[in-house]
Amino acid sequence: MELLKERIRKDGVVKEGNVLKVDRFLNHQMDVKLFREIGKEFKKRFEGEDINKILTIEASGIGIACVVAEIFDVPVVFAKKTQTKNIAGDVYTTKVESFTHGRVYDIIVSKEFLGEGDRVLLIDDFLANGKALEGLAKLVKDSGAELVGAGVVIEKGFQPGGDFLRKQTHLESLAIVDAMDEKTGEITFRE
Prior knowledge:
Layout: H1 2-11, E1 13-15, E2 19-21, H2 32-45, E3 53-57, H3 62-72, E4 76-79, E5 91-98, E6 103-110, E7 119-127, H4 131-143, E8 146-156, H5 161-166, E9 171-180, E10 187-189
Parallel strand pairs: 3-4, 3-7, 7-8, 8-9
Antiparallel strand pairs: 1-2, 5-6, 9-10
């Protein structure tokens, strides 16, 4: 998706430790017009799939998932990283490791919102090692729902997550970063 790659080149910042900071438009300040184009692209890439739920993980995937869900005309569910009083009753839970935060989270989805008969598309902002999407896929499996695929805005192609997930499900990444240079700020994309 050329529009997205241009925006990453313009506003993305390469930080030490293979971190790509895109908080100017993706996961802190959000460019909703760009999100709409992202949603349309995912709709094209998953054309013909019968999807009735979008699933993401809090927090930075929620904005994108909401716009994508609007375009697909389906509800969005997000896995929470902490149990709250608002989640009553039975839940699906698993552990995921965050590359960005360097810690392990328990993620939780109420059984009320995910189950047999659901055909689920996972949506997230980044894919590095794939642990968040792997955790979400486990929640889908545990629920008896069917995983249709996963849509990622930015994939770090030099990390193992994409290769692993492509063996498990239909994965669509809108921009795959092949290399980043923290000294020059240069970002190279897979074509």
